[in-house]
Amino acid sequence: MCSCYGARALLTSIFHSKRLDPPSRAKLLGDVLQRARRHAEAGTCPVIVFDLDGTLIDNRPRVVAILHELGDFWRDKHPEAAARCRAATVGDIGYGVVDNLRRLGVEHSWLHDEGLSFWKQRFFTDEYQEHDVEVPGAVKFARACHETGALLVYLTGRDLPGMAIGTFKSLRDLGFPIGTMGVKLVTKPAFEIPDTQFKRDVAGELGRFGEVLAVFDNEPANCNLLLDAYPECTSVFVDTQHAPDPPNLYPSVHVIDTFEM
């Protein structure tokens, strides 16, 4: 499945006007690599922090796979809704399961409840991560960061009990650095912890690894809080999809939509 964020996302993003154009994006990412290389050569451990879902990884194919299964599950009981779910494509997927169902034309609230429950039982598991793909350019950029000598920290809202094994396998299979020197995977200890609370709680600990040079996240709140913790770092908002009603980005946060250079 295509991992590109298409016209629908481009038109609906409230941060669209803030996105760097391709030459400016390439310069920003190139500057991160150069700074990391200089710090590594000077003996100072540079740390680059990446979120996963919506930042390095496009999980919309995971959602599509679940919706197709939901369509099969509903085939006899709710044939019209089933057909709409089975027709779902990556381009139909935004943030929020109920909104996705509405976008597909499934309107009844009781179907929304059933569909949400079906999705929750599958989305936050090891097995379904096999459907994930990279955000364009993410693997190449992450590997380039690792090659500079930087320490990569994957700081994710995925939880340790339910998703850590699948995350490790997915990162490996997609080609991201993992399971080697210079890489750390940091997950939530429990599913119930809100993602932003978790990142707020651990943000100050990232400095134990070295000097935090850059942070990448697809949630504006996380970009801001990590910049609060490390005012000298380069904070980058990856404008793919995010939770509703986001805060305003701090003026110094950069906005990109891919990692293509």
Structural account:
The structure is a single chain. This protein is of the alpha/beta class and 261 residues long. It has 2 domains: 7-58 and 134-256, Rossmann fold (3-Layer(aba) Sandwich); 60-129. It has 10 helices and 8 strands. The protein has helices spanning 7-12, 22-41, 60-74, 79-86, 97-104, 109-123, 138-147, 160-174, 195-202, 220-229, and strands at residues 46-50, 57-58, 133-134, 151-159, 183-188, 211-217, 234-238, 254-256. It has a 6-stranded parallel beta sheet with strand order 5-4-1-6-7-8, sandwiched between helices. A two-stranded antiparallel sheet has the order 2-3. Helix 3 packs antiparallel against helix 4 (79-86) and helix 3 (60-74) packs across helix 6. The chain is elongated. It starts with 6 loop residues before the first helix and ends in a 5-residue tail after the last strand. Residues 1-11 have low confidence and may be disordered.
Task: Chart the SSEs and their pairings.
Blueprint: H1 7-12, H2 22-41, E1 46-50, E2 57-58, H3 60-74, H4 79-86, H5 97-104, H6 109-123, E3 133-134, H7 138-147, E4 151-159, H8 160-174, E5 183-188, H9 195-202, E6 211-217, H10 220-229, E7 234-238, E8 254-256
Parallel strand pairs: 1-4, 1-6, 4-5, 6-7, 7-8
Antiparallel strand pairs: 2-3
Helix pairs in contact: 3-4, 3-6, 5-6
Keywords:
2 domains, 261 residues, 44% helix, single chain, six-stranded parallel β-sheet, 15% strand, alpha/beta
Number of domains: 2
CATH class descriptor name of the largest domain: Alpha Beta
The CATH architecture of the largest domain can be named as 3-Layer(aba) Sandwich
Termini gap: 22 Å
What's the CATH topology label of the largest domain?
Rossmann fold
- As a percent range, the share of helical residues equals 40-55%
Characterize the largest beta sheet: strand count, sense, and whether it forms a barrel.
Answer: 6 strands, parallel
Average pLDDT rating:
93
Round the Cα radius of gyration to an integer and report it: 19 Å
